[in-house]
Amino acid sequence: MRQITAILIGAGARGRFVYGAYAMKHPEEMKIVAVAEPDEERRMLAKAEYGLSFDQLYDSWEQVLALPQAADIAIIASHDRMHYGPAMKAIEKGYDILLEKPMSPFAGEVIDMARASREHKRLLAVSHVLRYTPFWSRIKEMITSGEIGEIASVQLSENVGYFHMAHSFVRGSWSRTEEASPMILQKSCHDMDILSWLIDKRCLKVSSYGSLLHFRPENAPQGSTLRCMDGCAVERECPYSAVRIYEEDETHEWSRFITNDLTPKGIHNALHEGPFGRCVYHCQNDVVDHQVVNMEFENGTTASFTMSGFSHDISRTVQIMGTRGEIRGYMERNEIMLYPFGKEAVHIPVDAEAGGHGGGDEGLVREFLREVRKGNKGGGQTLTSAEVSVQSHLMAFAAEQSRLEGGSSVMITDMSAQKTCSVR
C-alpha cells in the first residue's frame, strides 16, 4: 500500500480530529507533510501531532500553495467561505483534493470547482460522509436491488440535538449566515446529498419553510444574564447552560471544541472570555433553528426533509416508501426494517463501525486514498465527487431561497443558470 502524502489546510476541529487523526491512526496510509493554519496555537499542536518541523508550517493557504507541489493530496478543512480559493489553486497545482463540506456558500463557486476538477482531471471529493457509512450503504443496496420497487416518496429527519444546536449554530462559528452559510447548507447538505443518492434522479423543484423561532433576546428567561457565568439566576435550570455543557462534562465531548487547554482553568477561562460562555438568547445569531423542505424529482418522486435543533439526541431517521415495500431506518441505532408488501417484516443487520458519523468519517478518507492510489482522474470517479455534489448543494441553495421568499417553489434549473448566485 503506497503511503499518500498530504498538506492540511485548516487545522481546526475537522482538520485535526478527523483528517489529522486518520493520519496518526493509519500512518502507513497517509502522512501529513505540511499544515497551513492562521492560528499559532493550532499550528504548534499540528507540529507536535504530525511530527513536523517549523518549515512545514504555514500561516495561510496562499503560502503553502505558492510553492511547487509538496504532496499527493490537499485536504481543505478551512471555514466555509475559505474553500474556493485554495481548492482552485490546488487543482491548478496538480493536487487531488479532499474538501470539507459545504463546498461553498456561493452557487457559482460550487459550479466552478466542479468544472475545474473535470477540466484539470483532478479528483475533488467532498466530505459527504454519510454515503460511506454501513447504514446508508446498506439502504442504498436494498433500493438498488429492487426490494421495494420504485421509490415513490422519502421522509428524512435530521435531529440536530439541542446541545449541538446551541454549540454550533447559536454560539459557534455557523451562527450567522453572512459569516458562514445558511444552516440548511452547512448542516444539511449531507441530507440533501443522501436524498439525491438514494432517489438517484434529478431534483426539479424545491419549497421550504423555517425560521429562528427560539434563540432570540425576547425569549431570554427573567433573571438571565449576557453570559452564563455572570450570576445568571436560572443557569442551574437552563438546558443550554454553558457551565453544564462544557465545564461539568468530564468527557470533554464539547469542551475540546472551545479550547485547546482542557484543564479546569482552561475551560473556565474559555467560558469567561470566549463566545461559548454567552447566553444562547444573546448571541446575535441569525440562522434558523428549524426548517422543512419539500422536493420533487423526475418521474414524480417526492421527498420531505425536516431539520430541527429541538431534539434530545443527535440522530437521523428515514422512511422510504416504494411501490412494492417500505424501508424504515434509525441511523444512530443502526436499525433498518424492511416491510415488503404482503410479507413479514424483516430486520436488516448492519455492521456497526466506530468513529464519527457512524463510521463515515474514516470510510470517506479510506476510499478517497484508495482512489488516489488507483490514479483515477477527471472528477467523476469518487462516490462524492464535486460533479455529484453540485446537485445537493443546489437543492440546499434552492431551499434557502424558497424559505426567504415565503415558501415559493424554486426550480433547480433556474438555480443552476445563476452562475454567480448566493444565498445570504
Automatic annotation (TrEMBL):
InterPro entries: Gfo/Idh/MocA-like_OxRdtase_C (IPR004104), Gfo/Idh/MocA-like_OxRdtase_N (IPR000683), Gfo/Idh/MocA_Oxidoreductases (IPR051450), NAD(P)-bd_dom_sf (IPR036291). SUPFAM superfamilies: Glyceraldehyde-3-phosphate dehydrogenase-like, C-terminal domain (SSF55347), NAD(P)-binding Rossmann-fold domains (SSF51735). It holds the Pfam family GFO_IDH_MocA. Residues 7-128 form the Gfo/Idh/MocA-like oxidoreductase N-terminal domain. One of its GO terms (molecular function) is nucleotide binding. Residues 140-407 form the Gfo/Idh/MocA-like oxidoreductase C-terminal domain. Belongs to the Gfo/Idh/MocA family. This is Oxidoreductase.
